[in-house]
Amino acid sequence: MRYIEPHGHMVSRTTDDYQAMAMAGCQAVSEPAFWAGFDRSSVQGFYDYFCQLTQHEPRRAAMFGLPHYTWLCINPKESEDLKLADEVLAIIPEFMGSPNVLGIGEIGLNKNSRNEMLVLEKHIDLAASNDQLILVHTPHLEDKRKGTRLILDALKSDSRIRPERCIIDHVEEHTVGMVLDDGFWAGMTLYPETKCTSNRAIDILELYGNERIWMNSACDWGISVPLAVPRAAQEMKRRGSDPGQIDKVIYQNPIEFMSQSPRFTAPEGL
Amino acid sequence: MADRKNILDLYFLDARARLIDIAAFMDRVDRANGGDDFRYDAFRAALKALESGKPDRAGKVLLAFSDPTDEPILAATTKAACGAWPGADNA
Ligand SMILES: [Zn+2]
């Protein structure tokens, strides 16, 4: 089995996780910038985090033979503070030239507030002005439907944004249709409780097909499973999925999307 | 198209266990002291989707827990989501 982990917060994981992922067939990891579980006190905290994502973490992943890619932003959970958001947005261009940066992410909404919307629109502008791919976080639980709708409308209202260059992550049964119908890519996050289980993700593939869609673990500092993608692939096999279709969803699709960035190199896929 | 017997062979026992867990959870809530709770109200509303006999039960359950409004809220006063929409006055 070969796969790509398109959404893993590896700074929060141990080297044992890297090793287990590599042994399970992982060929590359992509790490969006996110919330640390606590609010950073200043822009300097983000500066250090972006250094970690662009310099330190690629070296750590390389110890396990894994190419490491990343995405930059101030996440929606810290977007209520507009002054801090502006300061962080101002330092992102300094890191955008780093060889492992694929785009802007994971941007989006958390509680669907006005300030979160303003910061989202600024990130969309930053991505559009610099021809960057976009990786979007959609809100949790009861806020997901509304937030996904607001995010799609914000992306569509900027004429420079091409939907095929944006991945809308953490879709579930009530949001995947609107994402794919509008031409965007959809990401399914495999969490034990709060997002999609493997079985539901496979149901969604059966219902919506396997174009413009991927699966990820979104493993971070919370309850999450770094090997969720290969586990879901195993379940697809158990359910009788064709091996070529499994390979498309967990390996070829992430390559197809990320290859839209000139910084991404398709792995050998051994 | 999947074979129904095969799907039941794979998932029946797991779904049966989850269903009994839900029943036990409802008994547990009933035994406990306290008043109404919007989360439990949403839970019972979501259960109706299971009996609808229509496809997309999962989507309907998710919608039963979702904020149905379309405008951004004035300000985020918390970072967390609790799993059910508390209503416009409490959001
Ligand atoms: Zn994430």
Structure characteristics:
heterodimer, A: 270 residues, alpha/beta, TIM Barrel, 43% helix, globular, B: 91 residues, mainly alpha, 2 domains, 3 helices, binds zinc ion
Through-space gap between termini of chain A: 9 Å
Rg on CA atoms of chain A, Å:
17 Å
Mean pLDDT figure of chain B? 94
Structural class of chain B: mainly alpha
What gross morphology of chain B would you assign? extended
What count of structural domains of chain B?
2
* Known CATH architecture of chain A: Alpha-Beta Barrel
Number of strands of chain A: 8
Query: Largest sheet of chain B at a glance?
Result: none
CATH topology of chain A: TIM Barrel
Helix count of chain B equals 3
Low-confidence stretches of chain A: none
The bound ligands are: zinc ion
- Strand neighbour order, sheet with most strands of chain A: 1-2-3-4-5-6-7-8
Give the helix level of chain A as a range of percent. 40-55%
H/E element sequence of chain B: HHH
Largest interface (CB within 8 Å) is between: A-B, 31 and 29 residues
State the assembly state of the protein chains. Answer: heterodimer
Structural class of chain A: alpha/beta
> Distance between the terminal alpha carbons of chain B, to the nearest Å?
42 Å
